[in-house]
Predict the structure.
Amino acid sequence: MSDDLELITDARATLAHIDEVADRARKAVVDLVRARTGREINVRPPSVMDATREQLIDAGRRARHAHEAMRLIFRFTWSAEYATLGALMRELPEDVREQIADHLWKAGLS
């Protein structure tokens, strides 16, 4: 267990370092574009207010599939014995597993 905690701690530190390096690289690119063109570029995802009708319709469809997957999952008891969805799924009837997997895929979650 101690080895697991050490691995998790090291992994978190490594991921934080990767984030820092990526942030510096993004800033360098933004600064370069500004210096050469005088223009700003946005490195963050666009605002939801810039979403098109089609994008919102697609988001609604994905949300409906995610909701349906959760409805199927919570027909069964998800006790602390099952730490992950994968652990719980192994215990569910095959037809239910297939339905849940289909909905999660259509929701863009698998």
In short: The chain has a mean pLDDT of 91. The two ends are 29 Å apart (CA to CA). The helical segments are 2-37, 53-73, 85-89, 94-106.
